[in-house]
Specification:
The structure is a homodimer of 214-residue chains. With 214 residues, the first copy, chain A, is mostly helical. Chain A has 11 helices and no strands. Chain A is flat and about 70 Å long. Chain B binds a DNA duplex (30 and 30 nucleotides) through loops. Chains A, B: InterPro entries: Homeodomain-like_sf, Repressor_TetR_C, Tet_transcr_reg_TetR-rel_C_sf.
DNA sequence: GGACAACATTGCACACCGTACAGAGATAGG
DNA sequence: CCTATCTCTGTACGGTGTGCAATGTTGTCC
């Protein structure tokens, strides 16, 4: 088990370094094995000494992202709604600042230590809010779904542009009120679907529904 | 504009045929251009006569999936909650029966005619439920996020197994109550996160929150 | 009817991708 | 020193999306 006691040449890398490089190269989607290897000045095959396959790299990246949004935001003396909202927005920010990260979260299983921690804290929050353990578990999943789903949709739509760009671009589209009357009527709001404002609104609405079950 | 009036050989295919083939080959993820071409007995480049690129094929697939869940479920005399729930469950079913479809929905922009129709009908439902147009638009997006997010997470977890398989597999895992007390306590519920029951619960909870804003 | 322009389709090629496999060199314990 | 073990590389295979020039078919106009 001791790392020092095994024969063979010293390792020139570590799994962490690989994830670091992958994170640095992350742009729209998880970088290729070959790209990461190139940045590390190494042949692609070398990475297979540290990772079984590309999926492992993606899983490691997922855990990184979850940790980058500070899970401590889920604790503290603020109201429980506030704590959920703060962490949710932080996570959304991380996922949007790394395009494609959200899609990764949806693809790679979230079985890392950070996701367990986040789940536990969300459960604690809902129990503390007066929900039964069952409803707390249900609510926890509902919140996770909302955050990941929303971030993924927004990330796909943003595509590197700013929130404002998207809104104004959408506003410049005109909808035929004869075909889609309500869409046309509510277009100014629909145009803001991928904004933080909408994100907070739907999260709060969801939390209201959860609170009702207490 | 007349299709008949242009020179050159007759087209041997149509965009629809391509999407048909892609749908037939769909398994876990959208098939490759080369695979679809092979099934149609044609060289890969031929497809580029009908589609600008692979992304277009994916967008067309997305619209197909949305249409496969019957959007007419959104209309009728049933209660508005019921209509939303029915279509949502139908869409969930379609997305789960085609692994990887949900991820596609999240990646490819939903700008097809069916998504417009679904959006319009959801708006109508919420307006009919007494919400202001603004809140209706917000609620519509919240519902879309929930359905797609939930389906994507579940599809990734299901991975070809049945709902029951996943639940029992999860139940057989034991969580250390010293590290994650609430997770351990609520594990029987957490194990059912990827079931239709959880899906309906969170959707109803979300709809309750939406109804509150009326 | 013949010329011409527009078009669908193909063959070939390029630049990627993940990764399997065998071998070369380095390093530890015996 | 010997040998087992480990890292890293060279090479290769089968796959991907798609750009480009050539081929042959088809319609319209003179």
């Amino acid at each position: 088990m001791d790392e020092k006691t095994r024969p063979g040449p010293k390792r020139s890398l570590s799994a962490d370094q690989i994830v670091d490089a992958a994170l640095a190269l992350f742009d729209g989607e998880a970088p290729s094995i070959r790209g990461v290897a190139a940045r590390l000045g190494v042949r692609p095959n070398t990475l297979y000494t540290y990772l079984p396959d590309r999926a492992a790299m993606e899983r490691a990246l997922v855990d990184r992202f979850l940790a980058m949004a500070d899970p401590d935001l889920l604790t503290g003396r603020r109201s429980w709604r506030r704590r959920v909202e703060d962490y949710a927005c932080a996570l959304r920010g991380v996922l949007l600042s790394h395009r494609g990260a959200a899609a990764l979260l949806h693809t790679a299983p979230m079985d890392g230590p950070t996701s367990a921690l986040v789940g536990e804290r969300l459960l604690a929050i809902f129990v503390g809010a007066g929900l039964t353990p069952t409803h707390a578990a249900r609510s926890t999943y509902a919140v996770i779904v909302h955050v990941l789903g929303s971030a993924t949709l927004t990330a796909a739509d943003l595509n590197g542009y700013t929130e404002q760009d998207i809104v104004t671009a959408r506003l410049s589209v005109t909808i035929d009120p004869n075909i889609l009357p309500l869409t046309a009527q509510t277009w100014p709001v629909v145009a803001t679907w991928n904004t933080e404002e909408q994100f907070r609104w739907s999260l709060r609405t969801l939390l209201n529904g959860c609170a009702e079950t207490a």
